Design the sequence.
């Protein structure tokens, strides 16, 4: 897009947590950043990287909208902790958690931003329902320039033969939040370390505490996931039983226990 045709996001603050454990993941991040830069304007992106050493350097892109924060961490990826850290850095009323390998429809996304910012129906909003996996040459072409027009032909009811449905529905990937609502429920629980469970826990807590969390059930509002090392992802899923068990606890505990846990989590943001 030309500078005049970029879509303004009204100062939206993105939160992207990241670990460049493989070349595919490093490439995916660059594709996401290129897409956001060529599609939108008037936003700030907090890129929170946790690793033994950085695999992203701001000088690669030189985008003044990006705030790169590196946190040394040689353990399992601490997504929940990093998200909460970024929320404390944010200063606006609307935030967006955005995975480093996901692409939203640029038609629906700004509508969802405005719905959360100005509307009264949703405290949290996923600008999609299902997630389609992008692989092979199409993925490489998109990463090279971030042009959504490459992906647009694959929207619709039918799933293209060249793609698979990664998720029929998920509470994670890309989520817009009223910042005050996120803090009121305590944010992500930092007990979740490694892959899985943290989004389910947050959704359950949000619903039990009365937050209005919605998705956009429109085939054209699908997300595109940039494929990466599925072998390691499957291994991570298999090893995440502890996180899944912890998320299940949030559904089972009493209202009093939930209130006490939330009160402890909220203290981080004080």
Sequence:
């Amino acid at each position: 897009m030309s500078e005049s045709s970029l879509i303004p996001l009204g100062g939206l603050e993105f939160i992207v947590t990241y670990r460049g454990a493989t070349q595919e993941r490093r490439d995916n991040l660059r594709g996401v950043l290129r897409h956001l830069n060529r599609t939108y304007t008037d936003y700030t992106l907090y890129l929170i990287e946790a690793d033994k050493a950085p695999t992203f350097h701001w000088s690669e892109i030189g985008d003044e909208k990006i705030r790169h924060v590196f946190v040394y961490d040689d353990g399992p990826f601490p997504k929940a902790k990093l998200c909460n850290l970024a929320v404390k850095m944010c200063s606006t009323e609307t935030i967006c958690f955005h995975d480093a390998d996901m692409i939203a429809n640029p038609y629906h996304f700004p509508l969802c931003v405005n719905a959360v910012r100005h509307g009264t129906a949703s405290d949290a909003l996923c600008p999609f329902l299902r997630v389609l996996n992008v692989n092979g040459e199409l993925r490489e072409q998109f990463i090279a320039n971030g042009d959504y027009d490459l992906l647009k032909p694959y929207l619709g009811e039918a799933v293209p033969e060249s793609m698979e449905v990664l998720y029929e529905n998920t509470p994670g990937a890309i989520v817009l939040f009223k910042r005050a609502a996120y803090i009121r429920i305590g944010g992500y629980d930092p007990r979740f370390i490694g892959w899985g469970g943290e989004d389910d826990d947050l959704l359950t807590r949000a619903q039990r505490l009365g937050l209005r969390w919605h998705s956009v059930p429109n085939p054209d509002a699908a997300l595109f996931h940039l494929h990466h090392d599925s072998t390691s992802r499957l291994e991570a899923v298999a090893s995440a039983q502890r996180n899944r068990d912890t998320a299940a606890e949030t559904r089972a505990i009493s209202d009093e226990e939930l209130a006490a846990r939330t009160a402890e989590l909220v203290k981080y943001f004080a």
